[in-house]
Amino acid sequence: MIESIKILRRQGKQTIPDVTNVTLPGVFRGIPIIQDKPCADGCSACIEQCPTDAILLDVNGRISIDMGKCVFCGECAEVCPSDKISFSKNHLNATTTRKNLVIAQGMPAEVKFDADAIRKEIQTVFHKSLKLRQVSAAGCNACELELNACGNANFDMGRFGIEFVASPRHADGIVITGPISTNMSAAMQICHEAVPHPKIIVLTGACAISGGIFEKSEVLQRQYVEEVGVDLYVPGCPPHPLTFINGILQLIRKRN
Amino acid sequence: MNTLVTKNGESFLVSEIPFVPYQEFTGTVLALLHDYNNHVVHYISLKSTSGILPIVICIANDATAEIHVVGFEYDTTTLRSIESITLHNAALHIFERDLWERHGIAYQNHPWLKPVRFPKNSSHGQTIDDYAFFRIEGGEIHEVGVGPIHAGVIEPGHFRFQCVGEEVVHLEIKLGYQHRGVEGEFVKARNDVQRSVIAESIAGDTSIGNAWAHAMCMEGLRGITPDHSTQADRTIALELERIAIHMGDLSALNTDVAYQLGSAVFGTLRTPLINYFQHWCGNRFGKGLIRPGYNRFELTTALQNRLSEMLDDINKQYTAMAEKMFNSPSVVNRFEGVGAVPENVARKIGVVGMPARTAGILRDVRISHPFGVYGKAPYPAILLHTGDVLARAKLRRLEIDASMDYMQGLLADPRSAYEARPTVKKMPPRSMVISMVEAWRGELAHIVLTDEVGEIEMVRVKDPSMHNWFALAQALRNTPISDFPINNKSFDLSYCGHDL
Lengths: 256, 500
Description:
- The complex is a heterodimer.
- Chain A has nine helices and ten strands.
- Chain A is α/β, with parallel strands linked by helices.
- The model of chain A has no long low-confidence stretch (mean pLDDT 92).
- Chain A has helices at 2-11, 45-49, 75-79, 120-126, 142-149, 182-194, 206-210, 223-227, 241-252; strands at 32-34, 55-57, 63-66, 85-87, 102-104, 130-136, 162-164, 173-177, 200-204, 232-234.
- By secondary structure, chain B is an alpha+beta fold.
- Chain B is built from 16 helices and 16 strands.
- Chain B has a four-stranded antiparallel beta sheet with strand order 1-5-4-3. A four-stranded antiparallel beta sheet of chain B has the order 2-13-14-15.
- Classes of the chains: A alpha/beta, B alpha+beta.
- At the A-B interface, α1, β6, α5 and α6 of A face α3, α4, α7, α8 and α16 of B.
């Protein structure tokens, strides 16, 4: 008993008091910043280097980065001869609309969160309590580990009434990870259909949002997630637990 | 014995592999595996030309650090039936199933010729819903099906139990839900970065292990030897990955037996470990650190000091908690004697990694086929004998202790700065390389082959789970079904590493 108390005392308070206001340590790569200046003549080094084809070049020679595909490896910034690309430490990149994940040249390191795009019932029904069923559809276990971490003593998502539950019947929505393999697509769909209305769908990680590094694989079956309405996109490889928690809090927050 | 002899990470010409008649091949394989020092690393098909499929087996000798490679040719136009080797050595069962699934090789007398991962264009044409489970008939028997989606936030797989009352008579594990076509994606990839990101995504909990195994293959083919500091940093990263996952597993094992203090404390101790990766390379799983030929982020003096201090601090808290946990009767009683896979069974089915080392079999590539700096700075041998859940928990504890000491030793060594990144050299044509890395679960093996112009023709990956899923099925025999969660957690095998 005394030893247990000693261990607890040494542990101290582990919980992050305010999850909405945290600067992540180290060389964290958050929302990219693309400076508004021309590229070196004929240069496409970043596009060739990008492992997930997340960098797009438009007809005017301006580049943009699609965070729905980006694995935040930072290789593009490393090869750019004009130092045009850098990564901010802003981890708050979850949003409701797919196109908002595209960061264009000259844009600040922020993601637009369309409050208008959120269905009214989400904030009225879920703002105090949200139970989620997670479905890994060929996720590599990195996203799954981070979603588990959301509930640990450090991040403690449970204090906001947000929890992962075992049965889709007890859930208010599903959180999908992985590029959605053909072999898992039917089970995922059955699980989503088993969640009672109203319900939400959250896509977590580059794989779930776009197929990510496996986008060109012939053994994916993404039709269901392409067609069903998605409520929240949480980019990353994997997304940081604080990215997920803040994204969900933004989604269910009571607005006037 | 007619075999090609190679070493971990060394490249050789495919033409050097002896291809012998199947009967001779079987004889060689069984003779090699008769020696307890030998074990199967991989058993794969190469690229077929005009219907002739070359099939090679790689068998590692843990005493001599050698890998034997030998093959036979199979005519896929006639699909002549050949005698399965599994009947004589069960360790080959999963590899023969895989070869049958990919090419329709007609194995005679294979006891369990069933699909492995239901890929596209499989020889059997079955979908994942077609699977025929083994079934025991009888009035007292009942069947329990679990998955593919499980109660927790974990990967999918299906477990089918045949039970008498509470007791499991037989567990069958159906996998394949996670199949993403990893091996094919490697070949489609256009550059090193893309292949490295694929390697890091084979199993996110083994990003470092797989990224290193892949880099080692590419370095072997290109004839590059990374400098000592690069190798030392990779070694530190691999050990850090090991203790971070072990810490998380100890937490989860405590959760499963409702020991809240252990669950919470080990859980929070994992956080600084994976946060350290973020400090070092910007990703909590070490993704983006290792590339063929170099590491992208050097462990600077400041980072080294930080790591050393952090390990000291974690060590104090961890030791107190581990002492408490392993002296708590309520915990030990739930683990002891549960789900034992004894040495004879472990040898028979060819397990690697943790389930081998808890059953008295010293199978550890760090010791037997050293890579990185493990040759110069040996990692201690850790061996337990009871093969139960308690042993698998204890092994994690001992490995956390050993790895922390080991890392401190490497950090104390004088070191020089990284050399310049090597220029990418062309790879030799028609060559092959086998790399093995002892990641936290056990032995990873990557194989890369080049075509006639030195481009990548084939990449093959083996996660230790390929060997070890069957050990979980064995552990459940005559075990109460309610002990499935602690057994499953104590193995913590990879679904995506298996399904690829």
